[in-house]
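Tat pathway signal sequence domain protein: structure tokens wanted.
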Amino acid sequence: MALKRRDFLLFLGASAGTVALGSCSSPAQNGSGSLTQINPNPDTLSFKPVKGPLPLESDRVPSTKQIEAYSRYEVVDDLVLPEGFTYDVIGAWGDKVGDSRFGYNNDYLSFIETGQNEGYLTINFEYISGGTWMQTYAQVIGESLPFEEVKAVAAKSEGKINAFALPDNDPLKAKIRQISLEGLIDQGLGVISISKTADGTWTRTYSTADRRITGISGYEDDRYLKATGPAVAVFQKAQGQGYQDGLGDRIIGTFQNCAGGTTPWGTVLSAEENFQDQVPEPVYADGTSFDPAALPFVINDYFVDGRGNVFGLAGNKYGWMVEVDPADANDYGTKHSWLGRFRHEAVAFKVVSGKPLAVYSGCDRRGGHLYKFVSKDTVSDPTDKTNSRLMAEGMLYAAVFEPDGTGRWIALTPTTPVNPVLPSTVEGSLVPLPKRPQGGIVEVTTDAEAVAFKQQFATLGDLYAGNDLEKQGAILIDAHFAANAAGATPTARPEDTDMAADGSLYIAFTSGSPGGDGGPDKRVFKGPQGETPWEYGWILRLVENQDDPAAMTFRWDSFAMGGEPAEGGAGFSNPDNLEFDKNGNVWMVTDISTSKHNQPVTSRVNDQGESISQTDIQGIFGNNSIWCMPTSGTMAGNAYLFGIGPMECETTGPFFSPDQKTLFLAIQHPGEKYGIRKDNQTETRKFVIKTLNGQQFLQERYVPLGSNWPHQGTTEPPKPAVVAIRRLDNQPITMA
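Answer:
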């Protein structure tokens, strides 16, 4: 039987050091961040949950009937929604936007209303799925690119070419520039104007504010991005230890734009996540970049990356939060360096009149940290657009999570003591630290190495070079590794942060498995029975001391846990983006890696009779999906399946319209593995599934290979697209 939130203890499971959830503090009132629930919800759903591949408690299928009900399951290449719901495609890859086009792999969405049933939809375009992008580019865009010619040359050097070093008149460099340019155009941000018709559908209105901010904006025009904060002092240095692009504080483009957030004053922040795929991530002690040669152009049958190489982009200018005002047609974005440079995923705001502004963001890597920026000055009017200036001065902090449900914030400043986490406490035993006197990082895997590092460097200021302002800029540029050195808690891929109406912060931690970047603190991130690693993820809730944005301590608990219901999980795997409706319910989409979608599980044990790993059974969860979870009442913490995405896609960026009648959703990378689905090709696969009481049985699953979504013709290319989900009766989507 699926566990409800109130039945959980902390990630530790039941032990002497834990406290029962909901037992802390007194009932919350008037915006308090108490751990108790405040939103009264009737114990009813506004939709009938769709049927997924696993038995769920919400299906209400008796245990005696579950094997029969789930012994066969058909996966569908479409966005599957509950009865009475439909969706409309607003825009798809290749559609016209301003003087450019709708980009690839749309992610975060923000709708800002400008009038009744009209407004600006801001869209992130995260990355290109190399294989499918190349396969379908000519069909969608109507032009051809020299993929095969360049691949043939690259194959002679393991798929890599340092195009930056080639002469400008080299024909190969011109071809790489052409491919890289088009790939970067398909990343970044887009703003489109839309309105709703009388029948509830949304259409584009093509206003003068419609525009693209691409990965290459500024390279051939004057649409440079701006920057604020101490990193500007590093950008403007005439000379440094490493590479400088000569542009000062001007920045060419934004890319790898994953999740984001919308401010109360009507601007949108976009998170540059896996920037290390296009430019070098490591920096020198003074914050300057490694040479573009450190990350060459890469092309093969599956990837087209290192696209910043041929243009000589400076790596230290990417990995930031980018703020854009959708209503300002001349705004091409500002990167606020006080928010730190790391693999940003999402952003949340705590905006209280008379208090400093707090901005929260997670670093989506294995072992990444949770961060909070606190402004120097205070908020006057939360809706005043001058609040953007507050992000130009303040302090960045990284979180320390204690196993007992408490926590604190560490300032990332030159005077902060060096005190790295011991590798023995980390899943996978890897804590990357700044490498000095050389630039870059060193992989510390033993406690003795961590202790020696602490003995060698007393403060963060000892790890970075320059005057006081330049050192602070270098720390922010190298924020993840500076946070490692300061002792921030390595976590389980924090992919989203969202602020509830009661002032508490909800955080989606996607995966507890370790990897090449590190792993989470195994004393904190555990499964229902204390298992580590726990691949399936968590949603955690954080409350600042006295609900103060500037508080230096907090409390945290577990709201929901991924995994199979039979094992104590809520039925989903790998939670990603979060969105609150006006009734306080959390809507969540999942981020199961494409390689794991519907991968067969013919046995739960290997040839030696040992249980196979959680990552090897992820195929049981099927496609990525959409869930709704009440935060109060008897249904609190239960997960209800609202929708299932098309083949090989990720469902991203959920965002409600103000009237709650529309849920905007981005469908990212359909057909990412098999490309175009040809002749309705389907494969039958076997899965060992568990009933709610743990009984194993064999499921036969019918799995389409590739995708034709969204246009569904048998030869149609799969295209990332943004949709508007609505009820056929034109009533609000959200739970009553």
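Residues 39-91+562-736 form one domain. The CA atoms of residues 116 and 195 lie 9 Å apart.

Cheers.
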